[in-house]
Amino acid sequence: MRRDDHTSGDGTDPTARTGRGISRATFLKGAAGALLGAGGGLGAATAGAADTPRAGYLKDLTGNETARFGFRGTDLGFTARTNHGYCISIFGDTFDQPVPVNVTGWRSPVGLRQSNTDLQNGIRWDNAIGGSRAKELILYRHNDPDYARNTPGQVVTEIPNDLIHLPDGRYIMTTFGVRDWAIPEQGGIPSAGGSWRTWYSRLWTSTDTNAENWTTTWNLETNRENMDYWNSGDMSLFQNNTMIMWPGENFVYVYGTNEGRWNGGGIHLMRVPWDKMWNYSQYRFWGVDGSGRWDWRQYGPITPIINAPSRNEAIGELSAQVIEGRVVLSFLNGGRGAVTQTATYPTGLWTAPKTQVTYAQAQNIYAPIVHPYSTLANSHILLSQWVGSEYYGVRQWTGNMYGTVAARGSVGATLAVTKDEPALPGHVGPVSPQWQKLPLAEQIAVLGDNTDNRVSRADIAAVTRSAASANTGVSAARHRAGAMAPTG
Q: What pLDDT score was predicted for residue 3?
């Protein structure tokens, strides 16, 4: 299987495998699906994929790059373009040290600003929210894991999902409050989906011009301080979430998944007028009714727009952007690595998953985030990686996001989605290709056809066979036992 021939800025090779094994509890989020495999694709392409300059791994974005802001170890980096034109990236658990061992300076989330558009030369950070030392953006307490898992609303940490700059200048950031990382050594209890648990996803607001200070978002309908997507009922499907606004519309579209990485779960969609995000009654959910017709409804049903590859695999952290008039979703597709799917409208119809980076190229990857300055032909992805005590950070990868949407004959009939057009209310049938229903050999063929040109088809074939033969999923335990002590 092919390996990219690049070395990271800290001297470690992002594409190399370590000689020793890594247990389920020794890395952050990269384990889910790391031992499973496959990608996703359809037969005939709708556009020719142009070669990308310096395709593949480009540079490290953290470590030495963020030392001047008072931290070296961090992950995620959900990125949004502001109304001012520059971008803000929000990171998760952040430490003074390069890796989370005997840590100091634990805070989450933190934010960096960035304005250079020559991404092919690497993303360059302008400054940090908080000044010379990046600050924890929101006020809360990092609690002891045992206390957090047993006390409603109390969390171990707040992990960012996404942020958006609204037309009136307000910023909205969402985080999920970690109830339990499901670490056995700490008495952790997995979710029903086999992964970490949350209490809620919470909305935070900044009215500062440059998002310097944040506070909770008031729930106007209940007159409560916190506007939460509590982890129950409909909102349990939006614990991990990402937001976009579609040009010419006044809605915020919110894509979401269950808490953690939910084996067998999928991606769901809701929308709300941007000036009513703090009113539950204004949310509408996208789904299929008993007659098989898709539509927006206040009380559902809520139907996955994209399903997990199999019942033993999960969709990882997701991100949405609007790039050149298309919606781009990026996420971990089980063990198949980082993928993108695009559509002409927020509801679909979606192209097949295009494999961007596999676990064969870089182990323990998670949270692929397409940068808003990308183009379809020249995409730039912020991709997190935790390799035990060797590396914990975010790296920049390049590729392209052209996807396939059509196939002929029996393959096309099975895939169901064969047109590159919007999925409007009244649509009947799947809104994303059903490649999982193909025989194994045909899965391998179409997934290989819909991969970035630098990704080895041998890797796609190997992980597809591995996924098909797996009987159980891989737990997505997050923190190493004892790696971090609670802070005040």
A: 27
Q: What is the pLDDT of residues 55-102, one digit of tens each?
A: 699 999 999 999 999 999 999 999 999 999 999 999 999 999 999 999
Alpha carbon distance 409, 133 (integer Å): 59
Token readout for 325 is 């008039």
Phi, psi of 149 (to 5 degrees): -70, -20
**Whole-number Å distance between alpha carbons of 203 and 279:** 12
State the Cα–Cα distance between residues 185 and 480, nearest whole angstrom. 9
Q: How many Å apart are CA 167 and CA 217, to the nearest integer? A: 17
Q: How far is CA 220 from CA 223, 279, 280, in A?
A: 5, 6, 9
| 3-class DSSP assignment, residue 233 | helix
Q: Specify the pLDDT at position 418.
A: 87
Cβ-count burial 92-118 (b if 16+ within 10 Å, e if not): bbbbeebbbeebebbbbbbbbbbeeee
Total residues found in the chain within this entry: 488
Contact status, residue 267 vs residue 256, Cβ threshold 8 Å: yes
Mean pLDDT throughout 323-352? 95
Q: What is the 8-class DSSP label of residue 89?
A: E
Question: What whole-number distance in Å separates Cα of residue 104 and Cα of residue 130?
Answer: 18
274-283 mean pLDDT: 97
CA distance 185 to 310: 28
- Where in 293-434 does DSSP place strands (E)? 294-297, 306-307, 315-323, 326-333, 338-343, 354-357, 365-370, 379-387, 391-399, 404-406
**464 vs 400, higher pLDDT:** 400
Integer Cα distance of 380 and 332 in angstroms: 16
463: number of Cβ within 10 Å:
28
What's the rounded Cα separation, in Å, for the pair 472 and 280? 37
Q: Which helix (H) or strand (E) holds 197?
A: strand 197-206
What are 289's two structure tokens? Answer: 């009714």
- Identify the residue whose tokens are 């990046």: 134
For residue 437 the two structure tokens come to 């229903």
ω into 42 cis (within 30 of 0):
no
β 56-60/110-114 pair status:
unpaired
Q: Is 294 within 8 Å of 427 (Cβ atoms)?
A: yes
- The pTM assigned to this predicted structure is 0.89
Instruction: Return mean pLDDT, the chain.
Output: 86
Cis peptide before 301 (omega within 30 of 0): yes
